[in-house]
Amino acid sequence: MMLEVKGMEVQLATNGKEAVDLHRVGACFNLILMDKDMPVMNGYQATKELRDMGVNCPIIGVTSSTEEAELEEFMEAGLDDCICKPLTIEKIACYLPGVASTSTANLGDDYDDYEEVEDENADRASNTNSNNN
């Protein structure tokens, strides 16, 4: 995944319930990328549940939707912001400490391999922890 190129520790949850369960067992993250459309528990429900549990790290919604009503509903669930697919390192960098000030030119030759997250990977909730650089 493109965040691993920058030395970030990344944990993937394939659905919203897995994302919530990670926090139930004590996992802590600096940032959560939450897809809107996931099986078992969607991004709306997972975000609301995480906020109800007291999770206060930034949760950034990820969606392919441009429907204003859908985006508003997603934000009301407790998001800090929302970005549209396809994901790029530029879209995510401003949310990650230590990455925002680094231009993508400094990512190295492997950057091109990670420029965009494939749809199959983007359709998961991604939890990132940058404490382990």
From TrEMBL:
Keywords: Phosphoprotein. The modification 4-aspartylphosphate is found at residue 35. It comes from the Eukaryota. InterPro entries: CheY-like_superfamily (IPR011006), Sig_transdc_resp-reg_receiver (IPR001789), ST_Response_Regulator (IPR052048). The keyword Transmembrane does not apply. PANTHER family: TWO-COMPONENT RESPONSE REGULATOR, TWO-COMPONENT RESPONSE REGULATOR ARR22. This is Response regulatory domain-containing protein. It comes from Hevea brasiliensis. The lineage of its organism: Eukaryota, Viridiplantae, Streptophyta, Embryophyta, Tracheophyta.
